[in-house]
Please model this.
Amino acid sequence: MIKIEDLVVRYGAVVALRGISIEVEAGEAVSVIGPNGAGKTSLMRCLAGLIKPSAGSIMLDAQRIGGKAAHIVSRQGVVLVPEGRAILAPLSVKQNLQMGGYNQPKAEVKASIDDMIALFPVLGRRLDSAGGLLSGGEQQMLAIARGLMAKPRLLMLDEPSMGLAPKVVDNILDALRLVAGLGTSILLAEQNASLALDITERAYVLVNGEIVASGAAAEVGEDLLERYLS
Amino acid sequence: MQQFINGLSLGSSYALLGIGVTLVWGVLGILTFAHAQTMTIGAYAALITLDRGYPVIVGVIAGLVVAGLFSGLMDLALFTPLRRKRAPEFAFVIVTIGVSQISDAFEASRTRSQTLPFPRKGFPVEPLTLLGRNVPRLSLVMLVTSVIVMAMLGYWLHRTKSGTAVRAVAYSRDTGELLGINSKWIFASCFFISGTLAALAGIFLAASSGQLSHSSNDAILLLAFAVIVLGGMGSIRGAIVGGLLLGLVSVYATVYVSSVFREAVAMLTILVVLVVRPSGLFGEKATTRV
Ligand SMILES: Nc1ncnc2c1ncn2[C@@H]1O[C@H](COP(=O)(O)OP(=O)(O)OP(=O)(O)O)[C@@H](O)[C@H]1O
Ligand SMILES: [Mg+2]
Model:
């Protein structure tokens, strides 16, 4: 469904991605695992249209989306839940969700909000609170729910587990499994390898802007274990 | 009573200006030095329309539309490319100063630097007797119109989808874009609305003084900035209260001290408020500007 080829991302003289190729099929859950500074966020932001690729191509089915503005990419169904959640702090939880469904018909936005409350019941109890007043875990749930409001074909998540208690992470992983089960493709960027491998079928390992390993989650997991243990 | 209404009505035009500046500042984080010129252009457009014999309402609408377009097109033509290149905020400020100088020069040459009479025919200028006193009707109309406009603006920003999208982009342009909001149009529409607010204030002031020149509104720019500093940088509510307060102070200063000290007393008020409350009357965190 989405095919990334030889993608290069630069910030001036800094090269964040050195020609990487990644593919996600429809309905597939794929992870990109890498340490700090590997280039995960650069990849996600580039796919979402927030930064322009310096070289390479990003194809969504037969359409070239590399270099398009972020709001257009989002309308095509490629939606990013950004690193650090990016909750619209002064807006209420409900308004955050409504903005997630900005390009959806009004009636569907209403129905989707109910779906999101079913997925994350905490949000239902906080609908009128300002988004900035939620706890870190609640904000991550809101960020994911807000992303889902756009009815994405591909949901991209940049380190959703960052800074959260294990129990909250479990909660979020359950929700993501549910979402994946309903047929939404997922691209997950994570530092936490075991977590990522737990919910995705395939994985890429990104180090220093380069893919150093890829394959089925189980294989990549063994590969990583060997590396760290030997 | 009469001075009070006069003060509030002068204040409401300051507030309209302040809100206009706050709106684009809230979204962009820059000060638009072109605001006074936008105001003047709107007033000129109204003047030209009225001189042709059109009714007041047509003149006002022409002024609003022309100033709105001037402001919106300035954003699309100049600021959109700057934003795309992620230019530093200072670059925007310089551009607004440039635009203001150019349009000032243009207006000055077009009118040969003359002060033109602003046609007041059709404006509600005759006094109104209220509670046994004479109250200038135009001041009352100005006040009521401003209050309605401000209420509409508040409703739009907080209760409608497009207004909420403005607040989303104001908070974070990237996040707004990720949610599928075309930030370019959000910016342009904020500039458009800001321009119409400036024109409304400009037409009110021109109609109350009965005259207009290319430099009529130069001193007011400083006041508009003062209004938003007084209100608490970037808060719409603050701009309204700050504007009204400054209007009252200006009028009372003229009546009880001297018109020479009008601006000075206004500035003194601001100094006092800032010393007591450095963040302004409604000072909020810089992140919640709108
Ligand atoms: N705006 C920027 N300007 C310059 N260099 C940047 C910028 N953003 C990221 N980089 C550099 O690009 C490289 C990749 O950063 P990126 O944020 O994509 O990594 P990451 O894998 O997301 O790291 P983390 O796990 O810490 O979030 C790093 O070397 C970083 O210093
Ligand atoms: Mg990152």
